[in-house]
Amino acid sequence: MGSTQFGNFEVQILSRFDVTSLQFAIRESQSDRAMGHRRYIYLLLRTSRRKAAVGRVEIQLFLVGYILISICEIFSVGEFPLSGKVRVAFSAIHIGLIAATTWILMLNAVVGYQLIDDGTPLSLALMVSSAAVLLIGTGYIALDTGLQFTGFWEESWTAPNRNIALYVLYQLAPLVFLVAFYILEAILVLRILGEKAPMLYLTGAAILFAGGQVINYVASPHICNGTNGKIDGAMFETLLTLLSVTLVWIFWSSITEDDWHNPVGPTYP
């Protein structure tokens, strides 16, 4: 793969980004994240009331994971006066949480098939332990890459900044998990439940998330240059991701609403 772009992390620095504009953009993005935190907490509280809903605890784990991601973003890309090593640590945790949280989201789709009873100690233990492995493993690679305490990934500091392990765990694995989540849920809704309306929420969530990523990775430099560094794509990406997560929750609630008032079988706290 030496002649391909696979595994390369190329950093673009916007020459027209002055300090004042950078702080303005960060404050706008942090404002969006603060709004997101309130929204996620509201969804957590709403979810806790759905005592009989399938996958209630599992979807709460996903929401908690995303709250932690948003908090880490504040410290990893925010304007807090942190030392370089501390910021690297937050960035490593942030990257690990992305892998773990998207994995939890995919497992939420598996929960719907009731291969294992949802909310049971076995179900939660499998979800939490596997997510912890991803979090620790990905976080360790990111931390070692940033702080170079073993020197194993030292070559990733030189152009073209190639780090296959981090690229797979940070860029590819979450994408695979998200696509698998969509496919599994689509099969569950269309073929097993025989419903179509919930797919509007699921597809809307996918479109919003994809749009946010396109803005962040593709359009952001153009937005930044066009506004002389006053704003970039991060603000829009944060907002679209917030809306996407909200639609995922609405999708989940729409396919479990029949259980809310008519619980069948035992329920779990």
Automatic annotation (TrEMBL):
Domain of life (superkingdom): Eukaryota
Cross-referenced Pfam families: Chs7 (PF12271)
InterPro entries: Chs7 (IPR022057)
One MF annotation (Gene Ontology) recorded for this entry: unfolded protein binding
A Gene Ontology biological process term: protein folding
Transmembrane regions: 59-80, 92-116, 122-143, 164-193, 199-219, 231-252
Keywords of this entry: Membrane, Transmembrane, Transmembrane helix
GO cellular component: endoplasmic reticulum membrane
The protein, known as: Chitin synthase export chaperone
Organism of derivation: Parascedosporium putredinis
